[in-house]
Amino acid sequence: MLAPAGIVDYVEHSALDKVALPINRLLVMAIIGGMFISLGGLLALVIAGGSPGLQASNPGLLKFVFGAVFPLGFIAVVLTGVDLFTSNCATQMVPLQRRKISAGTVARVWLLSYGGNFIGALFTAWAFAYMTGLFKPNEPATLYLLNVAHHKLENPFVTTFFKGMLANILVCVAAWQAYSAKDTLGRMFAIWLPVMAFVALGMEHSIANMFFIPAAMLAGLDASWGDFLLHNLLPATLGNIVGGALVIGLPYAWLYQQDA
């Protein structure tokens, strides 16, 4: 198992490798990453949404079930080596703090990652949620999806911001813990617990929301793209950036400086 200082050095090496990738490769990695996160969300919706009796009798347990299966996507992202914007919020801070890349380089990686994740999430919402017919009108899973999306849109800006902040703190902790593990099972468990926690707590992950809300719109949610972008995606994204970059990435880069 890697020690904390070793994890930060590993993160720096991984972040620099990503910076060196050609634009087209990073974009394709990000598209696949967005698709994987969305598939975890799709599985969680079908299982939790298909359990209306549990929702009525034990809503806390239903939240746990929803959170327990969602990490499928993030586990796939880490183990197969594709790209996720929210973890980049933390990892790119290490070489930035060590003055090995510029803020402009970080912005380039973030923008490519975010855009690719968005494409992958939208494709999954259309191809695998809508075109497969998983969410038929008035079925329990469909009603559950609509309720999840409606709740995400009705929160005040500041609430969604802080929910996004905590979501990415836990996502980046999951990534950090995964880097510490030496075997596949250890990595999977290191990822599963924090990701399960943020989902069960109802926090806001911008990439997951790129799937949840468009999928709900395709299923009949009465909301516009403006509602989605302004009332959810913007505050969730800003919260994700603060949680990943300022709470995890920069502090850990400073705590475990190479010349310390």
Automatic annotation (TrEMBL):
Membrane-spanning residues: 26-49, 61-85, 106-129, 161-179, 191-213, 233-255
Superkingdom, taxonomy of origin: Bacteria
Keyword terms: Membrane, Transmembrane, Transmembrane helix, Transport
Protein's cellular compartments: Membrane
Gene Ontology MF: a single term: formate transmembrane transporter activity
Pfam families: Form_Nir_trans
Keyword Transmembrane helix: yes
Protein's membrane topology: Multi-pass membrane protein
A single cellular component GO annotation: plasma membrane
PROSITE patterns named in the record: FORMATE_NITRITE_TP_2
Similarity field: Belongs to the FNT transporter (TC 1.A.16) family.
PANTHER family the UniProt entry points to: FORMATE TRANSPORTER-RELATED, FORMATE_NITRATE FAMILY TRANSPORTER (EUROFUNG)
Protein name: Formate/nitrite transporter family protein
Source species taxonomy: Bacteria, Pseudomonadati, Pseudomonadota, Betaproteobacteria, Neisseriales
